Amino acid sequence: MPISSLTTGCIQSIMTGTEVEKPVLQILGTKKIASGNDSERYRILISDGKYLNSFAMLATQLNHLQQEDKLKENTIVRLERYTTSMVNKTDKADKRVMIILELTILNDGREVGQKIGNPQTFNPADAASAPAAAAASAPKPTMNNNNYAKNNNVSMNQSINSGHLISPIASLSPYNNKWVIKVRCMSKSQIRTWNNAKGEGKLFSMDFCDQSGEIRATAFRDDVDKYYDLIKQDGVYLISKCTLKAANKQFNHLKNDYEMTFGSETVIQPCEDDNDDSIPTVQYNFTPINRIAEMEDKSMVDICGVVKEIGEIVHITSKTTNKEFKKRELIVVDQSEASIALQIWGDDAVNLMVTFNPLLLLKELDSANSMELKVLALELDPFINSIQIFLSVIKFEDARTGGAGGGSMSTEWLSFFDVRARNLGNGDRPDYFQTKATIQMIRGQNAIYKACSSPDCNKKVVDEGESFRCEKCNITSHTYKARFLVNMSISDWTSNRWVTCFNDLVEQMLGKSASEVDAEIQASAGQEGNENEPFSKMFFQSYVFKLRCKVETYGDSQRNKFTAVAATPLNYKEYNKHLIGDLSRLTGIGKN
DNA sequence: CCCCCCCC
């Protein structure tokens, strides 16, 4: 590879505001800028052979280059994209810094082996006296047609801009409050309230991006009302006068050392053109679903998949905080032919259906061909809105162990033998596992109970003959709601257990509602010994049971109580895949 | 100024 020649003298043009397209420069050094936390930023000493520029920074998305040691001394690079920004220093003149957004390495530092030319530190004061010389020696600098750079020169709305140029997110810091950023909203949270020792209030936060990076912003209290409806996902905004502070990396995974807070001074102006392609849309880095199990707990992943199953909205009351939650679970599959349960909480779970087309999505169940999935996910229009949800950065709970908090499809396969051998059910929290099992026996007696007729209450009522009293709702009604609560003995390949199966699962397995069965039983009242008959359809059916077990104490005896939380009809293709996986793990034969 | 992330 011949050594590339540098764009001699271009630093003068760049640092005085003239844009040079794709300049070729030599790196003479890199330096990590001290920062208060584990996020890094690198300053680069860069040369055009004539001038040195030490006010160049690497956009954080390029940090990997430094970490991979690709920016060694003497390396020659071509800047594919960069931007400059005026940094205001109160005691001195404004200073221009250069932020490198994208570069190509032309020659390795060792290959070049030396500093090219005898570059001198560029001094803007000198430039004023001799501007022509450098421009003449540069190989035809042309105006940079890069959109981002162009935007820097667009005359912005004076009301917020006060004549300042658009700054890249990467240049924001707590020491600089004279800036306007032009950003796209990548995501917006729900409104959340808090109530603690320090007081109460509400907030929402949103993540913004531009070409240089990303940053989180949070609005509190009155600002929530002011801005919540204004900020829309994918919208482009001009924003100024926020407070910056160090980002708390524990909760904020964006690539930025800082995060910002809206205040009374803050000005936000929506841009007319949300399609402005100078401001990037959300960038994804997809992880195949079958790799998630290998990742560290609580890792952040982007996934690209389609919905295989859509759960109902479930209302939950937290046992620790007594707070009400709404949840919906989706099963998502991707090209890796793996699936994972995706939990969607709060209003997101409710609003999901609005843009959802369950028919189209469910169609994938039958033609689960990995090649087709990709095309459908990316190109079928009705998918796009819903798919966006999965494309977003999604936090999966412990997908590996299937223990507390695991998604249903990531639940560990364990036999009843394993469960006993591992002493499961003895912890503070219940244990979850799944096994393929066949229903051997069903206890028909008391398989249906009379539940409170209020829609959200399933509590067993006190039967007062003519009326039914719910002690939870404190109401008495003349009607009740029949619900299943079935005990059945199920057997896997190692052993059998009595498990409790709640209403929805039994209705699903039986294809009949508890009310229908209740009516049948009433109609044939008096016939003894036929209690199991209504359930005969379920006998000897096999399912993949997802089970919860927890040791409970009854008087002075303890018993491991098993409850079915899901029963999926056997999909032999999938189950065989699991068995083949076990075989290859056990024997080392097969997969790599 | 939040920082909770729930449940079966």
UniProtKB/TrEMBL annotation:
Occurrences of domain Replication protein A 70 kDa DNA-binding subunit B/D first OB fold (ranges): 168-271
Domain called Replication factor A C-terminal: residue spans: 432-579
Entry-linked Gene3D superfamilies: Nucleic acid-binding proteins (2.40.50.140)
CDD domains in UniProt: RPA1_DBD_A (cd04474), RPA1_DBD_B (cd04475), RPA1_DBD_C (cd04476), RPA1N (cd04477)
Every Replication protein A OB domain range: 289-364
Coiled coil: none
GO biological process, one term: DNA recombination
Keywords (A to Z) from UniProt: DNA replication, DNA-binding, Metal-binding, Nucleus, Zinc, Zinc-finger
MF-aspect GO terms: DNA binding; zinc ion binding
Subcellular location: Nucleus
Cellular component GO terms held in the UniProt record: nucleus
Replication factor-A protein 1 N-terminal domain span: 6-107
Main location: nucleus
Functional note: As part of the heterotrimeric replication protein A complex (RPA/RP-A), binds and stabilizes single-stranded DNA intermediates, that form during DNA replication or upon DNA stress. It prevents their reannealing and in parallel, recruits and activates different proteins and complexes involved in DNA metabolism. Thereby, it plays an essential role both in DNA replication and the cellular response to DNA damage.
Subunit structure: Component of the heterotrimeric canonical replication protein A complex (RPA).
Similarity-based family: Belongs to the replication factor A protein 1 family.
Name the record gives this protein: Replication protein A subunit
